[in-house]
Amino acid sequence: MDSIVDLSSASTAQLVEAAAAIAAQLVQRPAPESGAACMELAEELATAIDQTECVLAGLIAVVDRTGEMKHWGFASTQAWLRCRMGMREGRAKERITLARQLPRLERVSQQMATGALPYGYAATIADAVHRLGDADCATAEDILLKAANEGLSAGKVARLGNKIHDLVTERNGDDGPPEDVRRGYERSWLAVSRSLDGGCYVKGWLNPEDTALLDGTLAPLAKPAGSDDRRDLAERTAAALTTVLSGGHRNTRITVIARLDTLTGDDQPGWLRDGTPIPAAQVRRLALTAGVSPLILGPDHEPLYLGHAVRIASHGQRRVLETMYESCAVQGCEVPGLLCEVDHVDGWALGNSPTDIDKLALCCGWHNRWKHTHPDQMQITKTDGLYRYRALPPEGIARSRRGRLGRSPDPAANPWHDDHLAA
After folding, report:
1. Strand 200-205, strand 189-194: pairing
2. Annotated region Disordered: where (predicted)?
């Protein structure tokens, strides 16, 4: 008898444990010396990985639909994937799109589950149809799936998907911005075309220098406003551009950080928020320049005390905190400090935290509210004068993170280990 385990009767959790145990054993095995054998094994393993990607998409879909990640201190499904699984933003977004679109892509889901359709094609098709209605989605699925099965590359399938979207848009009466193929790439350019309803289309190209200026100005303003912000990146970028055009960004400041001794003649340099050193003599000159704000630190590298016991932090306190906190104090949250709220570390409502500079931190709006409603799930530490928050799992739930913590599962404790699978 080859096996005493009936895999068809195993639970999902048991099968995941089995897959984890097999992966732990695989990484300890050296690759065969034969190149031909490695090609065959790599292709077979890639197919298995594509099938597990289908399973992963199903799991992510349930987490996304139920909002379970919010109980763990994550503002969104994307934040959960980035922080707990180490995914880059683009990879997380790709998996979320696939998870949300697979229920509408029956044939793609079936072929992916059997290993007949690689993950790359499935993700490309999901991205191509996510802006289409259900009827157009079904038609597009047939066309794109046929193209994939006929051997077109994923890139060509993506371009075909864009063409389908353009045709649907044209059919619905939205002509879109005119194509401009006559311009080169030596100089930046923007083309603005008016629409009949008073709006306009903007199309163009920016050289690397202008792109850096655009990113530096718009990127911080285009971050999600919180868990309820359903806008995509394009919509948030448009809102950020509107903010800049209306002058809402004019509170941008340059902050020079320096020790008190530096201002009184010492040679210790100062620095900007990004760590750029500033010579002591230049610091003293900048301290007298209009529009540049010096932040004076005491001998222990601690900001001088600026606070007093009132509910709302002062303008000066906020400027100090924005200098100290580049982003939200919660581990893994990337909302810029400039867009965060001032948080009373020990909780103002409890009467434990006065509005003193050494009792304040910057926290994004979503995590500020989450911290207030889940005080037992927030671990707070202080290092080098900065508070760091870490969201903890709900009470009573222990999560196994064997692979991420570098611990291999105990074969003797695993009912799915090879010793139990073979007779």
Report:
1. antiparallel
2. 398-423
pTM to 2 decimal places: 0.61
State the pLDDT confidence band at 352, using cuts at 50, 70 and 90: low
Contact by Cβ (8 Å): 327, 333: yes
Close Cβ partners of 66 (under 8 Å, ≥ 6 residues apart): none
Give residues with Cβ within 8 angstroms of 308, minimum separation 6: 314, 355, 356
Q: Residues 122-139, buried b or exposed e (16+ Cβ, 10 A)?
A: bbbbbbbbeebeeebbee
* Domain extent listing, the chain: 31-171, 176-205, 211-252, 254-297
Entry field: residues in the chain: 423
Q: Directed axis angle between helix 89-101 and helix 119-129, to 10°?
A: 80
Pairing of the two strands 360-363 and 378-383:
unpaired
For the chain, count helices (H), then strands (E).
16, 10
Sign of torsion over alpha carbons 204, 223, 327, 344:
positive
Q: Are 409 and 21 in contact (CB under 8 A)?
A: yes
Cα(124)–Cα(144) distance, rounded to whole angstroms?
A: 9
| Neighbouring C-beta atoms of residue 158, cutoff 10 Å | 19
The whole-number pLDDT of residue 255 equals 66
pLDDT tens-digit readout, 30-84:
999 999 999 999 999 999 999 999 999 999 999 999 999 989 988 889 889 988 8
Backbone dihedral region for residue 298 (phi beyond 0: left; psi -120 to 50: alpha; all else: beta): beta
Distance CA 158, CA 128 (A): 7
Cα separation, 134 vs 332, whole angstroms: 36
Distance CA 283, CA 270 (A): 6
What would the mean pLDDT of 87-112 be, rounded to a whole number? 92
The candidate with the shortest Cα–Cα distance to 19, out of 65, 71, 59, 75, is 59
Give 102-126 pLDDT, tens digit per residue.
999 999 999 999 999 999 999 999 9
Query: What would the pLDDT profile of 235-268 be if each residue is shown by its tens digit?
Result: 888 888 877 776 655 544 556 777 778 877 788 8
Lowest mean pLDDT among 14-23, 176-185, 372-381: 176-185
Give the C-alpha separation, 138 to 83, whole Å: 34
**Identity (one letter) of the amino acid at 95?**
R
Judge contact between 206 and 214, C-beta under 8 A.
Answer: yes
Q: DSSP 3-state assignment of 201?
A: strand
- Strand (E) positions, 210-328? 254-259, 270-271, 277-278, 292-297
